[in-house]
Amino acid sequence: MLNSRPALLKRYLSIINKRAGLRDYTDETMRLFVLSFLFVLLVVSQINTVVDIDLWCHFKTGEYIVKNFNIPQVDIFSYTLENQAWIDHEWLSQIFFYLVFAKFGWAGINILKAAIVSLCFLILIFFIISKYKKIIYAIFFVLLSVLAFGYRSFARPEIFSYLLLCLFFCALEDKKRLFILPLLQILWVNTHGYFILGPILIFLYFIGELISGDFIKAKRLGGLFAATCLACLANPYFYKGALYPVKILAGIFSGQQPYMQAVHELMMPINADFGRYVFFWVLVILSSATFLVNLKKARIQHILIFLSSFIASYMAVRNMPIFIFMAMPLAAINLNEAMPTKSIIERKYYIASILIILTAAYFFISNRYYIFTNQSVFRKTESKMTELLTPSKACDFLENNNIKGRMFNSIDFGHYIAYRFYPEKRIFIDTRTELYKRDFYQSYLRAQNYPEEWKGLQKRYNFDIALLRHLFGGTGRLLKYLYNAKEWALVYYDERSVVFLHDTPENRAVIQRFRIDFSKKKIEKSDKALSVAGFFEKIGEQKLAEEVYIKLLEANPRFLEAGNNLAVIYINSRRFEDALRVIGKFLAYYPESAELYANMGTIYLRMGKKEEGILMLEKSARLNPYLRQASYMLGLVYLEKGDTEKATRQFMKYLALDPYSAGGHRILGDIYKQKGLLKKAAAEYNEADKLEGK
User: Fold this and answer.
1) What pTM, to 2 d.p., does this model score?
2) What are 262-271's pLDDT values in tens digits?
3) Pairwise CA distance, residues 370 & 372, whole Å
4) Which in 26, 54, 135, 636 has the greatest CB count within 10 A?
5) CA-to-CA distance for 151 and 468, rounded, in angstroms?
């Protein structure tokens, strides 16, 4: 009996070992499943509509470099720049983008983006796994980071910067492959303007070691920093290329860089559409909390990296991915160091992790992510370029009819026009912010709002074609001016763009053939679009706009924008009962629409119901403080009541939102005159006269 006990014990231990081995095998399999599903999510999250108009410039420049074996030293696309020096810091990326697009089209571009962005996340995940052997914290913050990154999912040269940033971070953490960083820096400086992040990251580690008192490591990092900075000189522009980011930053902080405040991606994420960045702010809060959890063990360099990347992202929306790719591994490191990971049984969370990952993937595939983050107008899960941002049909019209001459173009059409027509045609302006001087950009803006400025610009540059965007705002006054000007003729329009031709002998035959006469116009199938109705409104063809809005509402009775705009037409034509009927119907569907309350308030005021009107307008202003109509109408009410202080505030607010309103400037001039502020009144009257072309 006693002799049998050791045999039983051996048998029992053998069974335990087999089960443990099976469990280990199952754990590894499940971990592999989790990582596989995560990879699927990463790819799915990056396959979406291409919306970056700068790609056309990258394609064309890449084509130019490949075909001419020459990297541009001066601008080649715009006739207004007159051989302006151009530091094309993205030339290597542009070659890559051009070759991929030429061979594989938009699917290739999307796959390239998906591969590089996915690789960024995978590099960081496997770095965390190799260091801590656990994936649960990394998985959580990767999921959150993917959701935060979704709005900045653009096929741009900056994706190479994200990859190199992640490689730099892992190398600096690992400390075994530091020798490769100067070589990577040579690649980076020729790929994208974010190359300055390489030396900055090394410098932050250097400062961290100095503060920690490890002078041997600090000395080593100091030498690496110097070598990496020297590597920045290995570019076609030598020291000018190396100093390029410093020059741009200096321009931003000095206010010399054109239209910095007008471009959405250069705004602070707190000032831009908050709904688009909700996941980013969740990541900020939760990753910040991990530093509090790991306060005793958090390294100085990690704190410096976290704070620096957050400041960069807070200064401009376009820098948000820098924070995302740094916060994700730092948060995972903090939790792994602060909490006892050995006690965590990860297999308990594998099934839940897979379900959450699949839910997130469905969130993207079903387009619910793009709806939730207010991107659904532009994006969905597909592989093609959005048609909203390219004047392809207008360019077809110019090409098919062999229309010659210099062109004035909307700024966001510049790259596509260059892609289509260079070198036969050159553009007036594009979105390469670093090339155009502040005065030139201001002239471009003013020409779209001041008739005399337009005439001066046309005389200076002698352009005979105007290819303009009518979709969205900014061009309404110029469209109306050109439509009514005898020396210009509307010859083409579509859902997003219009073409006007200057009435010259060279253009006369084309004008006679294609001039559009709206007095005989019948609504066609191609006209049944919100943007076309908006175009009709902008040029003063209200009856056509009304007809299109009615047809849109017949097709979709809950189309809020169409209903709102139709109500405005009814208000302006004093059909108040019709307007109230439309507004009442839509308020049942959209009780929080500031525009509906502003329109209702306007109706009440015009019907003489002042108190009801004020209540509606004030409610509108509470729902949307940036609604121009509410500010304008409230200003009129306060002025009529004799409250000039409130009226002044409302019209100043209105003009901050719409600085090119001649009527707003004239009314503010009247208020200043009433107050006895004659110099201010004269300035407002003068501005109104300029806007009206007097």
Assistant:
1) 0.87
2) 556 666 666 5
3) 5
4) 135
5) 27
